[in-house]
Write a structure and sequence with these properties.
The chain is 67% helix and 0% strand. By secondary structure, it is an all-alpha fold. It has one domain: lambda repressor-like DNA-binding domains (434 Repressor (Amino-terminal Domain)), CATH 1.10.260.
Length: 66
């Protein structure tokens, strides 16, 4: 659920993986691994993504629908 949510949020806001990787200060390859589930997303990155998209961390984690 987590990986589908971060990809869906990125696409619905018309961000590229490159743009998100720059905002999170990671390589594009690292961000791609976050979306595929090959690499766990650090808590600080989850908080940044939640703030960027205006959602809760619980939403990103699939613990909430809002």
């Amino acid at each position: 659920m987590l990986y589908e949510r971060i990809r869906g949020l990125r696409e619905s806001h018309n961000y590229t993986q490159r743009k998100l990787s720059e905002l999170l200060h990671v390589s594009q390859a690292t961000y791609s691994r976050y979306e595929s589930g090959a690499l766990d997303i650090p808590i600080q990155a989850l908080i940044l993504l939640a703030d960027l998209y205006g959602v809760s961390v619980d939403y990103i984690l699939g613990r909430s629908e809002s």
